[in-house]
Write a structure and sequence with these properties.
The active site is at residue 173. The protein has one domain (4-264): NAD(P)-binding Rossmann-like Domain (Rossmann fold), CATH 3.40.50.720. The protein has 267 residues and is an alpha/beta fold. The longest helix has 25 residues, at 117-141. Helices cover 43% and strands 13% of the residues. The radius of gyration is 18 Å and the shape is globular. The chain is built from eight helices and seven strands, in the order E-H-E-H-E-H-E-H-H-E-H-E-H-H-E.
């Protein structure tokens, strides 16, 4: 029976590319999304047309500590992992990709500020707390080391090529990605005892906003040493594909940067 992968934020952009790649690799996939209903539905239909009953979607918010229905984030994450086991009877790979990203300047974020307190919760929740809760739920269900080794169970967290450098005015995002980097390293050591590998992929510039003027696209591209272009979704997904493959069975606690050398220019 083919393996199963859960990808958060899978309906668009990098998450979609990862879902397509892992499905091509033979995985059955659970595609988490929050607001991209049409995109998620279309992707599920596309994948199931290629291989019947190989893809399902799961809608949930990973943004704030408490959703509108009052269900805490930890319980929403537990429910998502439980859905995977209920639907496919197994889960082999968890890809924590969902991420909120927008400016949160220190003095402008919080109650009575330009951005209210939920902005901080949303960004830290999606970038750090949700990956923690999902990883915990996954590890709690997969406690047999020999079985985990046999099925090469692993977690991939999508960080940022610039995690080591602060991003001006993106305080909460920077904090979230630093926390996620810490989760990769800490959980890699802890979960090695039950043979669950934990790694990261750090994309650089990719999927430049369509509303951004073309001249600004060129400015960003000019900063990238290799080829002066942004990364494609397929290139980022290929790094994930490698880390979850049998070729990476001795790789844990590391992050692969897919940024064309961009982070080296800002060290």
């Amino acid at each position: 029976m083919s393996k199963v992968a859960l990808i958060t934020g899978a309906a668009r952009r990098i998450g979609r590319a990862i879902a397509l790649q892992l499905h091509e690799d033979g995985y059955r996939v659970v595609l988490h999304y929050n607001t991209s209903d049409d995109e998620a539905k279309a992707l599920v239909e596309t994948l199931n047309a290629k291989r019947a009953d190989s893809a399902v979607s799961y809608k949930a918010s990973l943004l704030s500590s408490v959703a509108g229905d009052g269900v805490p984030l930890s319980q929403r994450c537990e429910a998502m992992v439980q859905f995977c086991f209920h639907t496919f009877r197994r889960l082999d790979v968890l890809v924590n990709n969902a991420s909120a990203y927008y400016p949160t300047p220190l003095v402008e974020t919080g109650e009575a500020c330009q951005r209210d307190a939920t902005a901080a919760e949303d960004i830290f929740g999606s970038n750090a707390l949700a990956p923690f809760y999902l990883s915990r739920a996954f590890a709690r269900r997969c406690t047999n080391a020999e079985d985990n080794k046999l099925h090469n169970r692993c977690i991939v967290n999508m960080v940022d090529a610039m995690t080591a450098q602060p991003l001006l005015n993106f305080t909460m995002y920077t904090m979230g990605k630093h926390a996620l980097d810490g989760l990769i390293k800490s959980s890699a050591i802890e979960l090695a005892a039950v043979h669950i590998r934990v790694n990261g992929v750090g994309p650089g510039i990719s999927f430049l906003p369509v509303e951004m003027p073309l001249e600004e696209h060129d400015v960003y591209r000019s900063k990238i040493p290799l080829d002066k272009r942004e990364a494609t979704g397929e290139e980022i997904a290929s790094a994930v594909s490698f880390l979850v493959s049998d070729k990476a069975q001795y790789v844990t606690g590391t992050t692969i940067k897919v940024d064309g050398g961009w982070s080296l220019t800002r060290a």
